[in-house]
Amino acid sequence: MIIVMNKDVTEEQIGAVVQKIQDLGHEVNISRGTNRTVIGAIGDESKLDPESFDSMPGVEYSMHIVKQYKIVSRESHKQDSIIDVRGIPVGGKQIQVIGGPCSVETPEQMDLAAQQVAAAGCRLMRGGAFKPRTSPYTFQGKGVDGLAIFRQAADKYNLPIVTELMDVRMLDTFLEHDVDVIQIGTRNMQNFDLLKEVGRIKKPVILKRGLSATISEWLMAAEYIAAGGNHNIIFCERGIRTFETAYRNVMDVTCVPVLKRETHLPVIIDPSHAGGKAWMVPALARAAIAAGADGLLVEMHPNPCEAWCDADQALNPQEFKDLMGSLRGIAEVIGRTL
To answer: Is residue 51's pLDDT more than 90?
Structure first.
């Protein structure tokens, strides 16, 4: 950690900061410039709190110089991590598209959706058994019955399943149904008790970005999972909230190269929730892959007009198949496969 002193700092004030650092068991390095004096604290940064120095006389500001998200950081693991989902790699040279409906509705709907997802060339399937909805009066998902329906439909086509965990009390139920990838939704990105619990298991976790979360907050949320021992984490950008009202959310494609620089973990994008309209999804999906995303989370419904949830943003089977075809061309250009 470094403590930057004010221009008019006194030797007494410098001495007080130095003494505090030493009392905390750290070594001290003092660098005196023309306009500023910078004091470096050498040792375990986790034991130092910048706020405890910022209020001291003569201190302009203090800051950590080592990232607090140590496990998920690129500094701790130089090579890209590849997350294994039942033999399917997420990350690396191969791009994965996770397709399926917003919610589990009926066995017939899920059987047909699984068939169409597999036919389009997807190797993983998404679907919500538990649905976090803005209104308490809208469809909340079929719950445990939905997990059983989803599992049965996906197994016919050997598709690993991705579904959202909302309540820590349901984790054992998810494990009983052998959910392959647990999704932590945007509203739970900073549900720290939930993050700690999925950190104690080894199942892959898709961590969606919060509506107004910074990159740093997102990385720190992932660190909660990693600190528990589960390093099988996949970041998912799903759009952030801004002043714009022309579309549902702003798909922050800029986060892809930033995350690729900051972390070794895979990064995927959900263009369906970003745009909120089916006609936007193909363009956003192609942009995500061109920017370097490791995969996509795309909503596809056998008959979007009859969807119980988020009908406006779901692609129909033909649209989904066409999208997969266009993505293969982009993947090839950037030296990857779909």
So the answer is: no
pLDDT at 297 over 90: yes
Which residue has tokens 């496990």?
Answer: 71
197-221: average pLDDT? 95
> What whole-number distance in Å separates Cα of residue 81 and Cα of residue 76?
11
List the structure tokens of 61. Answer: 């500001």
Report the 10 Å Cβ neighbour count for 276: 16
What pLDDT is attached to residue 137? 62
pLDDT tops 80 at residue 6: yes
pLDDT at residue 182, as a whole number:
98
Q: Cα separation of 42 and 266, whole Å?
A: 32
| Torsion sign, CA atoms 213, 218, 224, 225 | positive
E strand map for 48-123 = 59-63, 83-85, 88-90, 96-100
C-beta atoms surrounding 5 within 10 Å: 23
Dihedral sign, Cα of residue 237, residue 238, residue 242, residue 244: positive
Angle at 326 between CA 322 and CA 331, to 5 degrees: 140
Write out pLDDT tens, residues 212-241.
999 999 999 999 999 999 999 999 999 999
Query: Predicted confidence band at 162 (pLDDT cuts at 50, 70, 90)?
Result: very high
In sequence order, what are the beta bridge partners of 196?
none
pLDDT of residue 139: 65
Q: What's the rounded Cα separation, in Å, for the pair 263 and 261?
A: 6
What is the SS3 assignment for 333? helix
Distance CA 65, CA 77 (A): 18
Q: What is the CA radius of gyration of the chain?
A: 23
CB neighbour list of residue 170: distance below 8 Å, 6 or more residues apart? 130
Structure tokens at 17: 């900061």
* Token pair of 6 as six digits: 């004010």
> Which pairs from 167-170 meet CB under 8 Å and 24+ separation?
167/130, 167/194, 168/193, 168/194, 168/197, 170/130
